[in-house]
């Protein structure tokens, strides 16, 4: 049976089981510290924008957000058994660097059903400092009117040149909702994207400073 806060080909019971699994499966490998999870609305449309520095970021957030979450995931992951599983737990494939309205349309439908959509605006994993951002998250926020919630994490990426780490500390911080500029057209979309990028980048800098003193 389908649910309005998930894509139509998702299995809600499998999604919920997957979130439960993700909520604890990383604990043996990371010392996870969460901050301000209470800022996540328990219901209603939400666009979560997050920085991205390691493959584990998506699954980690999937288990930590406390409600059903539909993430954009790179198309390359949707093959074989893994691809079948991602679709059944409601995740959406997106082609990086290509114009494709299908993930935008599917994510908008989830938001209109009162769901939560997670986007990594950087488009790919890197240093996670959000030096650049794609327009998809801002487009979703402007189109749906959903709450835009920034989330940043640090500690999942192994520093360059370092060896294997034993249960590194990972911090996940939920910020205050971001207000997206209301201007129309291409200029409005660019301004909205920069608002999201700057908000995330500022949170990353603040978290880096906090981690350096603890």
Features:
214 residues; alpha/beta; seven-stranded mixed β-sheet; 37% helix; globular; Lysophospholipid acyltransferase family protein; acyltransferase; acyltransferase activity; transferase
Report on the architecture of this protein.
The protein has 214 residues and is an alpha/beta fold. It is 37% helix and 17% strand. It is built from 6 helices and 7 strands. It has helices spanning 12-25, 57-64, 80-88, 102-112, 136-144, 185-212, and strands at 31-35, 46-50, 70-74, 92-94, 116-119, 147-154, 169-174. The protein has a 7-stranded mixed beta sheet, with helices on both faces. α4 runs parallel beside α5 and α5 (136-144) packs across α6 (185-212). The model has no long low-confidence stretch (mean pLDDT 92).
Topology diagram in text:
Elements: H1 12-25, E1 31-35, E2 46-50, H2 57-64, E3 70-74, H3 80-88, E4 92-94, H4 102-112, E5 116-119, H5 136-144, E6 147-154, E7 169-174, H6 185-212
- What would you call the shape? globular
Order of helices and strands: HEEHEHEHEHEEH
Tell me how many strands there are: 7
Major sheet size, sense and barrel closure: 7 strands, mixed
Number of helices: 6
Strand % is 15-25%
